[in-house]
Write a structure and sequence with these properties.
This protein is mainly α. The chain has 19 helices and no strands. The protein is elongated. 45% of the residues are buried.
Length: 338
């Protein structure tokens, strides 16, 4: 639940009560996530027509906090608050229609409620409209409209909207393609920790998309994304260190990043690890490790990896093969479970 709702409800209670005690009790219940107490204190306010309280009660029923999930009750309270102009409730109604929670899935109805909230400068609603209008092949696809709403949310500092606005400029969706403008928005989102923006910045500098190629800058952004588990950033870092020259030629770093991606099931990373270990250039040759990574890639259909696996196996003892098979099962289990 968005933080503004908690604050607005406590303020309303503080203004509605002759004594501070109920407000303090509600504030403490919210902070301790004691939803049974929150519901007990908020329901009378909601019944008196307090829109923030109505929205909060709706959220409790939607999420099943201290009560069974009850979409009908959630919708009833959200609607009462939304019809009073409460942007939080309008947004929440939009979410329920978009997901089909307690109502038939209805994207048009979701748009109607999101728009009401968005027109009140709700950045999350503006972002949701941007997402709906930017869906490829969607019923409501309209890239120019998507850009409009993403921009509104992005200018309020919403990182996900900044990222998506960068994507629109990067690809020329709804606006003339402009890599410099894409970089601007990606950097704003990347500074807030959005891994996909960090990856996209890395790719722009790696491949020189509208800028001069700058491997150091590419590494900086790929690393930020890779440390968050972004699989393509991890792979691209591996490639830079694997194929680079000078300060960028570092097989140990290549192995480190390929391994991170390979352990997430990235086939090309698995294959490249096999190549590094079987060739032993810049790192100690290790047929067992080569067998492990070639085998994992081969299991995903890589025919060259199958050839590498067989070559590695021909240089291993039966005990080494059996040990490697255990390693393969352990690694594969990790990404199959995701």
């Amino acid at each position: 639940m968005r933080a503004v709702l908690f604050a607005s409800l406590v303020v309303i209670v503080a203004c509605s009560c002759a004594f501070a005690t109920p407000a303090e009790e509600l504030k403490a219940a919210i902070e301790s996530e004691d939803y049974a107490t929150v519901l007990r204190l908020a329901t009378p306010l909601a019944e008196q027509g307090n829109a923030p309280a109505q929205n909060y009660v709706g959220w409790i029923y939607q999420k099943g906090k201290s009560v069974p999930v009850n979409y009908e009750e959630a919708l009833r309270w959200y609607r009462l608050a939304a019809e009073q102009g409460n942007s939080e409730a309008q947004y929440n109604l939009g979410m329920m229609y978009e997901r089909g929670e307690g109502v038939p899935l209805d994207q048009s109805e979701a748009i109607s409620w999101y728009r009401l909230a968005a027109e009140q400068e709700d950045p999350d609603a503006q972002y949701k409209l941007g997402v709906i209008y930017s869906e490829v092949g969607g019923t409501h696809t309209d890239y120019e409209e998507a850009v409009k709403w993403f921009r509104m949310a992005a200018e309020q500092g919403l990182a996900s909207a900044q990222n998506n606005l960068g994507v629109m400029y990067d690809n020329g969706y709804g606006v003339p393609q402009d890599h410099a403008e894409a970089v601007k928005w990606y950097k704003l989102a990347g500074a807030q920790g959005i891994a996909s923006s960090q990856f996209n910045l890395g790719a722009i500098y790696d491949y020189g998309k509208g800028v001069s190629v700058n491997k150091a800058e590419a590494i900086k952004w790929y690393r930020l994304a890779g440390e968050q588990g972004h699989i393509d950033a991890q792979y691209n870092l591996g490639v830079i260190y694997d194929n680079g020259s000078g300060v960028f030629d570092n097989k140990e770093e290549a192995v480190k990043w390929y391994r991170m991606a390979g352990e997430q099931g990235h086939t090309d990373s698995q294959y490249n690890l096999g190549v590094i270990f079987i060739n032993g250039v810049g790192i100690s040759q290790n047929y067992q490790n080569a067998f492990v990574w070639f085998s994992l890639a081969a299991l995903q259909g890589d025919e060259k990896a199958a050839e590498g696996r067989d070559i590695a196996a021909s240089n291993m003892t039966l005990a080494q093969v059996n040990e490697a098979l255990d390693m393969i099962r352990w690694i594969k289990k990790g990404y199959d479970a995701e």
